[in-house]
Amino acid sequence: NNQSVEVLLEAPKDSYSERSLLYGLEPLGKGTPRVESISSYICRLAASHNIKVSSLLIELIYPHLSSYSYLKNIADKHISGSSLLGIGKTSCDIVSALEILTKRNDLIGLTLLNWSAILNLKLISKSKKWCSTCFKEMNMNGHIIYEPLIWQLKEINFCSKHLLPLQEVCINCKKKIPHYTSRMQLGFCPYCNTFLGEIVESNIPIDCNITDRQLSICRVYSQLLINNYTSLVPTKEAVRYFFVRLNNVNESISYSQFAKNLKFSSDQVITWFSGECRPPIAFWAVICKIIGASIDQLLIKQYNLDKLRPMLEKRIIKIEKRKFISNEQKQKLKSNLENYLKSGESNLSLLAFASTQGYT
Question: Other CB atoms closer than 10 Å to residue 88's CB: what's the count?
Answer without folding.
Answer: 15
